[in-house]
Amino acid sequence: MQQFKVTSESLNIRSAPIVDDANRIAVLPKGHIISKIKNSDEYKWWKVATIIEGKILEGFVAHKFLSQVTIFAIKTLLEIGEIPIFQADGESAFFYEAGMSINADGAPNAYHPADTGIDFLANAGYSDNWWALAVDKNGKAFIQGSTDPYPGYYISTTALLDSGFVTQDPRRYVDSTNIPYIVLPGNADFRRVTGVKLGDFAVVYNTNNEKLIFAIYADIGPKNQIGEGSIALSQALGNDPFVRSRVRRGIPKNIIYVVFPGSGNGQPRKTLEIEAETKRLFEIWGGVERIKSL
After folding, report:
1. CB–CB of 28/72 below 8 Å?
2. Are strands 246-247 and 10-14 parallel, antiparallel or unpaired?
3. Which CATH fold would you assign to the domain 74-103+176-293?
4. pTM of the entire structure?
């Protein structure tokens, strides 16, 4: 899709290619970015799509108030551990380039009391201060029972969870081995500036091999670190994170992340849902052609 920006002080987007008070869907501000879908039968109108607060909006606009974007004006929102977080003027999506460390949290076989899980127990915390394990009211970590996926293992948690399951049910959390997810910093300034929330969608692109994957924001990491993803995301990007059956190998650099604040519903999603929701957002944002130009 071609991207255009609004050149007038404001522009109405309508449900039909005609001026009528009843068909105005929204008012787009000057500089807002939209994508052209097709010409309308009415010559002065285009059918367009845009992203407002993470949601897709389609309608008709008078194209004389648009100009094509050939170079995006990019600003730096903030830096996380010397990694700049960028955003184009007129858009809510943000992006950054980093490596990818691997987060096993949420996998039912991530952590074991004897430290024989696929990840090292130290990454889950320590006794009386477990930050990646489900615990009871006294801080004692739950152990999976005979009907759980990995009896004898701890129950590993993610910040994004399904409240329909109880705390000690492994299904409550987002499984790192099955769901492509990203981790973002637990940083109040980052959340305030970007507007991102757990459950929002992202596109992750490995410039080393041109593999592109749709993902969900499912866990929170250290406040001054960025560039982390699940086991499933790492594998889909062409990286095997396992060395002798344990998570040890990340991706050093050249991973681009594009995140769409407001796009999710605050709930875990299945992989097919993540792909379906994010694919359309990505197309409207500019797709593969644009991400390769970053």
Report:
1. no
2. unpaired
3. Barwin-like endoglucanases (2.40.40)
4. 0.97
